[in-house]
Structure formats: structure tokens, C-alpha cells
Amino acid sequence: GHSTSFTQTGIVCRITRPATLVLNQETTKVIQRAFQRATYPDIKGEKIMFLLGKVSYGLHNIQISNLSIASSQVDLKKDKSIDIAIQNVSVIFKGTLQYGYHGGWLLRVQQSVDFEIDTSINLQINTRLTCDGGRVQADTSDCYLSFHKLALHLHGEKQPGWLEQLFTDFISFTMKLILKGQVCKEINVLANIMADFVQKKAALFLTDGDIGLDISLTRAPAIKDNYLESHHKGVLTYKNQSSILPDSTYNPSLLGDSRMLYFWFSDKVLSSLAKAAFLDKRLMLTLTGDEFKALLQDKGLDTNQDILREIFQHSSFSDSQVEVRSLTAPQIICQPEGTTVKSSVSVEIRLLHQDRAPTVAFSFEEDIVTVIQASYEDKKLILDLSDFQIHHKSFHSASTLCKQSQESIQEFLKTLTAMVGIPVVISWLEPALTTLLNSKGLDLFDIINPEIITNKGYLVLQMDFGFPQHLLEDFLQTII
Length: 480
Ligand SMILES: CCCCCCCC/C=C\CCCCCCCC(=O)O[C@H]1CC[C@@]2(C)C(=CC[C@H]3[C@@H]4CC[C@H]([C@H](C)CCCC(C)C)[C@@]4(C)CC[C@@H]32)C1
Ligand SMILES: CCc1cc(Oc2ccnc(N(Cc3cccc(OC(F)(F)C(F)F)c3)C[C@@H](O)C(F)(F)F)n2)ccc1Cl
Fold this sequence. Notes:
Elements lengths: L10 E6 H21 L5 E7 L3 E25 L3 E22 L5 E25 L2 E20 L6 H45 L1 E2 L2 E4 L7 E2 L3 E6 L2 E4 L2 E2 L18 E6 H13 L4 E5 H10 L7 H6 L8 E7 L4 E5 L2 E14 L7 E19 L2 E18 L8 H34 L6 E10 L2 E9 L2 H10 L2
Helix pairs in contact: 1-2
């Protein structure tokens, strides 16, 4: 049936509560960075003090000299925000305090002394995730600091009592305002750099050459009690042309919340990727005659049998080539049994000659349906064939195969396809896809017990993960 959303969703990413516990360990590093990046402007002022007359003071060159964070929690608030609570951020600020007062008879005192301000702060950041132009935006304006310590220490001799009073009454108030303003601003900046960084990395992940997936959001990320999830178009872009959006069949009950991370892919997205691979001439494979011969021997087929000798026109294998290619874009349909791939394939046997261009000795076409079960282990994609059907379509021979009947040739070709053709395509595709995914850095992630589950019309990747240190290092580099 028609989905309720305005724009169709091709891909959904769900991040569950268990994942936020892993990420929590890293939020403290981001908060620490926010404190370090914040700038602390001078605090200047003057007050009329009892008996002292007009007093002027200024805190200059305020810098962080020490920063530690005790603990933090991340909590998901349904239909609202990701609440991050951080306890006991203890920060020591250093700087120079200049103060002076104009005594009664032109007595001017001007002092300059180094100070330390020792603080202990709790932070509460309630991050709302919004969608702005198809990208995740983090709104952390709901940002509170509470101080349970703010003490001034002056270097050198005992400080004058009135200064202590001035600090307690006034300067500390200004200090709190500045800290809240500056630190919360930096947190918002960092949050949005992070969201942007993930969006960019994700787009790179799902692009290869002219083939890409448009992963813009179709709505704001949804935050529920046990998970947050983002909905993406999943539209194919090929040579910068976007294709149309397939009808979406997603609903939240299709995914669980026991694993840390879920990716839901409509099989229309997978079909469009197959179509792009076909248009990009990637779905072809050429074997040398010797490789082909070795494969036949591997499967225990007699390489001297008449039919082969006639097909190869009695020339030796090493002077030949076998080319396998897809005639149309393969159609991908996900079922509970596995991923069904429907394709029409042509196999061409070419003879190479010293003095002239290769000639096609033999060719045949077949409609092949395969059912594949995919898994990902030891950072490798594994494709297992669980069922197949071969419909012979036609064959063409350059020379007449006098001793063979049509049926015996058809039977031979079916056996050849089943025992050699399909396995060689799969054993070519596995490392090719693994290399592609690892070239995007998938192998850098610490993915734990990933599962690839297919069901009616969609494919789900579900997994746990160890925090991707490399991702955080990468990110923290971008925010020197
Ligand atoms: C079978 C063929 C299928 C087709 C091809 C498939 C290709 C893909 C295959 C597998 C995909 C695996 C990808 C790698 C998984 C790695 C695990 C992994 O590490 O995933 C985590 C990456 C970081 C993140 C995105 C995440 C969780 C939460 C996110 C955070 C929520 C709020 C954060 C905001 C910026 C607000 C910050 C607040 C501030 C700190 C005060 C936000 C969005 C930052 C990013 C994280 C999951
Ligand atoms: C590469 C994973 C992926 C990202 C997609 O697009 C986006 C775009 C923006 N944010 C997200 N989030 C999900 C997510 C989870 C895990 C990793 C990840 O990206 C990455 F970190 F691995 C990067 F390096 F590629 C992205 C985050 C989004 O769900 C949220 F949380 F912001 F709402 N996904 C779409 C499909 C796939 Cl397979």
C-alpha cells in the first residue's frame, strides 16, 4: 500500500539505545574539544566600592589550563531529543587580573596578578535532530551549564578582601554567562560539523565512480524510546542523473531494537544499483581459455569430450577466450529465502589468431534465476547460492557441429552453466564487492556479528559495533 510519507524512502538507518551507550564513551571527547575551542573574552569593569572609591578591574588572557570530565549519560527522549548529561567537568582557567583603585588623595593603585579560576560544571545538552535540505542538522540550543564550584585563586600575596567580595558578587556571574554562551556555541558548532561529516562520509560510502545513491533525508530523523532512525531517498544517481523514486514499503515494525545498528534497503534500491552496474558495463567477465579449461577440470568435466573440441573447432584452449556478460539489467527481488537475481546472460567463445582479429567460434544465451544468501564475516562478503534455474534461449556455432544433436548441446550448455558458469560469476563477484566495500573503509569499522536478512521486498543489515576510533580521529582532525 501507499506509504504515508511525502517523499518515498528507499533506505532507513536505525540506531538503537545499545549503540548510544557505545557512543557515550566518545561524547566526552567531543565536549572536551568544545571547551578547548571556545574563546574566553576579557572581563572588565569598574565599581564604586565603600571607602575605596572607584575600583576598576580586568581579567585578561583567560585560557583553559586543565580539563577533565567525570562521567556522562546519553538518553533518547521520544519524539523530542537526544539528551546528554555530563557530570563534574572540572576546568581550571588561568589568566591575569589587573585591578586598581583611585584612593582619596590621588592615590592610584594599579596591580596585576596571575589568577586561577577553579570550576566544576555539570552540562545538560538536549540535541534535536532536524532535516535541512535533506541533511541531518543537530540543534543543541537546549544547552545548560550548572556550576557547583567557581573559586578564584590569586598568585602571590594574600588578596584584598574586597576583591574576593567583588569576584563572588559580580565577576563569577559574568564568568558563568560567558562560559555558558561560549561553550554551548562551540557544542552546537561541533554537533553540526559531526552531522555534516557523517553525511559526507556516508555519501562517499555509497558512491563509486559514476554510480551513487542519493541518501538525502526524506524527513527529520525520528527519535523513539529505544532507537533513533533516519529515512533516506536511496535514489540511484548515474552520471549525475537521478532516477525516479520507487514506492516505499517501509514501516518501523520491520526493524528491531536489540542490535545496535540496522539498515533497511528496499530491493528496488538494489535493483537500481544492479541497473547502474549494467549501464556502467561492469557486469562482464572474460576468462582465458586456460582459466576456462582449469575450471572444467576443477569440476571434473572431461576437457577432451567431442562437443568441446567441436565448439573450440579443435583449436587449443590457450588460443581462446570465454566472455560472460549480462544482456540486460539484472532484476533483484528480495524474498525470505534469499535475494533472487533474474538476468539474461550471453557466453561467447572466441578464438584468437596470430595474423587476424579474434573470431567467435560459439555463443549461447540463457535466462538465469539465482537465489543468493549473503553474509559478512572476517571483513569479507560471502555470497552463497541456494537455488537456481536455467532457461536455455539460443546458441550459435560458427561451424556446424556435425556429431551433436540440438538436445545434447542444450543439455551440455545447461550443465556447463550450472557447474562452471554460475560458480565462476559468484566467485568473481564476492571479492569484487568486498574490495569495493573495503575501498570505502568498511573494513576499518569494528562490526560485530553482522547479519544480512532478506524478506519480501527488502534487505536488512543488522549489527553491533565497537566505536569507530578512526572515524572520531578523522572527525577531530577536521576540527583542529
Ligand atoms: C549487501 C549490500 C548492501 C548495499 C551496500 C551496503 C553498504 C553499507 C554496509 C554496511 C554499513 C556499515 C556502516 C558502518 C557502521 C559503523 C558503526 C558506527 O560507528 O556507526 C555510528 C557512526 C556515527 C553515528 C552516525 C552513529 C550513531 C549516532 C550518530 C549521532 C547521533 C547524534 C549525533 C549528532 C551529531 C549530535 C551530536 C551531539 C553533540 C555530541 C552534543 C550523531 C548524528 C553523530 C554521528 C553518530 C553510528
Ligand atoms: C554508510 C551507512 C549509511 C548511511 C546512510 O546515510 C546517512 C546519512 C546521514 N546520517 C546517517 N546516519 C546513519 C549512519 C549509521 C552508521 C554509520 C553512518 O555513517 C558512517 F558513520 F559510517 C559514515 F562514516 F559513513 C551513518 C546517521 C543518522 O541515522 C542520524 F543518526 F544522524 F540520524 N546515514 C545511508 C545508508 C547507509 Cl548504509
